[in-house]
Amino acid sequence: MMDPIKYYTFNIYTDEVEGPFESDIVAGAHHYPSDSLTLEPLPPQADKAVVALRGSGGEPIGYQYVDDHRGKKVWHTQEIGTYGTVLEIGDLETGWTHDEPPTFYHHWNGSAWDLDPLTEYQRALEEAEHFRYSDNVLQITPLRNEVMDLRHRGKDAEADAKHDELIQKMADIETRWPLPTPPAP
Known about the structure:
3 domains; single chain; 2 helices; 3-stranded antiparallel β-sheet; 24% strand; 31% helix; two-stranded antiparallel sheet; alpha+beta
């Protein structure tokens, strides 16, 4: 009696190895699909898929490794903030990377995220202006209103004292949130 032969087929969408399956034995002959291989596939490797190596006629002649990033998060290198999940085997599409940009202000230099001096300056300027504005709304506006109210009621001496306090608070805010120095051209 003959023992069945192990054979391997390939996924019709990804060409990944499937199996093993056992051949049928009919009338003393092994029967298995003609587009399969009896050759043992390559051993599994991390982040790789084992797929068919095809001959010039499209027939399977062996196995090969292909990058497999499926299910992993990727970031677009030109559209900062755009990300997705890899759905297919193979190399990452051009313009995508596994590396998350550290900030919205970074740009892709072809192999890593960079922060150029002008972009860093713009980020620091936006941050300083944001905090200065917040402090102005919370501290300066109420004092300014109080100064105007005191002047309106004819309490000039109190208004002058509050105005001095106002000037000091404005200086404190500028010290706390200094504007960055622009990069050299």
